[in-house]
Design goal:
By secondary structure, the chain is of the alpha/beta class. The chain has two domains: 393 residues, Alkaline Phosphatase, subunit A; 48 residues. Helix content is 33%, strand content 16%. The strands form seven sheets. The chain has an eight-stranded mixed sheet with strand order 8-5-9-1-10-15-4-16, sandwiched between helices. Strands 2-3 form a two-stranded antiparallel sheet. It has a two-stranded antiparallel sheet with strand order 6-7. Strand 2 and strand 3 form a beta hairpin. Helix 4 runs parallel beside helix 12 and helix 10 runs parallel beside helix 11. The radius of gyration is 22 Å and the shape is globular.
């Protein structure tokens, strides 16, 4: 029954789609995009679920009144004129290798809606349970799909996929073939391993291939009578699983224990540090898209960056998570450059929005890490889509710069206001997809741009 529903959903996607898209149109788009894409580029997305406070990290306002400014002081970086929070001393010493975009704004104020806007360009400002639009990672996976690859072209380490009961990312109408290969668990755990990778037993490999051949023959009739080509979506799952099970190269790519103790220590022997190390290993091995989410115990009591006063003491939460963030992100940036991957690989660090510049004071809903006992009145910052800071590194861009600015309280952009659509077009530009030419066709032949607005951010264009 579940198989029938998946097939029916794919068929519906082929008939209706998004902005009039059709399945033949999608196939055509992939063929067209293949002529212009820069296939040797890659992106690592570090997702801060819940939204990082821009005022306490990369867009500090030390001259603001006490209702707005936090307790932290800005410190100089290794780039004159660029300052970051004192909580990020390691980041301050690699500012020449990243760019800060301080003027991202939109109007989707809920976690699901904000995430869907930033990750997939969904124009809706209200929360919805599942995506209507595919996220940019799935689109890139679709357009770069190559069944002969030994590794998936899209991997998520600690998946970027949900906010509580809401699904915030996914392939939507593109279908389940373009979902990422998901790595769960803590890569810093002594006995951590990624299941279903690289069978070492030759006899097990032989039996696996025999079963695969038998299944292929059984499925032949189904494929022959399938006039739409939709059954191939399910075949993709089987092919990828077989490659991963039989490939020692795939097993090595995911194995962070292959790295030196010194480098593992540099990233941090914790989940965030080892997630970033695995991401670097994967793009170096040829994976195009790697996403990883910073959440869990390292965030504080409620395991995310949602620093309402009912959840966290916002400043204690930032103090708690800052050493892990500072170490992991600075190590990732420096490692990308030290290995000569900085033109091929772009690193992006962001969440769905920033936090309210004005500090609120509300009673805690429960005690724990970075939160006072239940009933304790503590400071917090709430949702704020009107301003956010994104960090970009690598990708051949001009680094050591700040793009845009917010007003004296950090409430709204006053220069170079950009939207999530501009962010998405910048991503596609790095991946080599022409945002003007990249459009999908309806049955009538009408061209439908993937996103109806937005332009690549010129300051983040690859340098010559």
């Amino acid at each position: 029954m579940a198989h029938h529903l998946q097939r029916r959903q794919l068929l519906q996607a082929g008939l209706t789609g998004f902005t009039g898209l059709t399945l033949p149109g999608l196939y055509r788009a992939r063929a067209e995009a293949a002529t212009s894409q820069q296939s040797d580029t890659a992106i690592i997305l570090v997702w801060l679920r819940g939204g990082q406070s821009h005022l306490d990290t990369f867009d500090m306002k030390p001259e603001a009144v006490s209702d707005y400014r936090g307790p932290f002081s800005p410190i100089d970086s290794n780039v004159p004129g660029i300052s970051v929070t004192e909580l990020y001393p390691k980041m301050s010493q690699c500012a020449d290798r990243f760019a800060l975009l301080r003027s991202v704004a939109h109007n989707a104020g809920g976690h699901p809606a904000g995430s869907l806007r930033v990750l997939g360009g969904d124009p809706a400002s209200a929360d919805k349970p599942t995506p209507t639009y595919p996220d940019w990672m799935s689109i890139a996976s679709y357009l770069r799909h190559d069944p002969s690859r030994q590794l998936p072209n899209y991997v998520t380490v600690n998946p970027v996929d949900r906010y509580d009961s809401f699904q915030i990312a996914g392939p939507a109408y593109l279908g389940p073939s373009y979902e990422p290969f998901k790595v769960t668990g803590d890569p810093s755990a002594p006995k951590f391993s990624v299941p279903n990778l690289g069978l070492s037993d030759q006899e097990a490999n032989r039996r696996l291939n025999e079963r695969s051949d038998l299944k292929r023959n059984i499925d032949l009739m189904r494929r022959d009578i399938d006039q739409t080509g939709l059954m191939r979506a399910f075949d993709n799952f089987d092919a990828q699983a077989l490659r991963l099970l039989s490939s020692p190269e795939a097993a090595r790519a995911f194995d962070v224990s292959q790295e030196s103790d010194k480098l593992r220590d540099r990233y941090g022997r914790n989940s965030w540090g080892q997630q970033c190390l695995m991401a670097r290993r994967l793009v170096e091995a040829g994976v195009d898209i790697v996403s990883t989410e910073f959440d869990g115990p390292l965030c504080g009591r409620v395991a995310n960056w949602d620093d309402h006063a009912v959840n966290h003491h916002v400043f204690d939460a930032n103090r708690h998570r800052a050493p892990f963030y500072d170490q992991a992100i600075s190590a990732l940036i420096e490692d990308i450059y030290d290995r000569g991957l900085d033109r091929r690989v772009m690193v992006v660090v962001t969440g769905e929005f920033g936090r309210t510049p004005r500090i609120s004071h509300v009673a805690s809903s429960g005690g724990g890490v970075a939160s006072g006992a239940k009933g304790t009145v503590q400071p917090g910052r709430d949702h704020w889509p009107r301003a956010n800071t994104m960090l970009f590194s690598g990708g051949g861009i001009q680094t050591g710069q700040v793009i845009g600015a917010t007003d004296k309280n950090g409430e709204d952009p006053i220069s170079r206001r950009v939207t999530p659509y501009d962010f998405l077009m910048t991503i596609f530009q790095h991946l080599g997809f022409d945002h003007v030419q990249l459009a999908l066709h309806s049955f009538a032949g009408r061209r439908n741009p993937i996103f109806s607005k937005g332009d690549p951010i010129p300051e983040l264009k690859r340098t010559s």
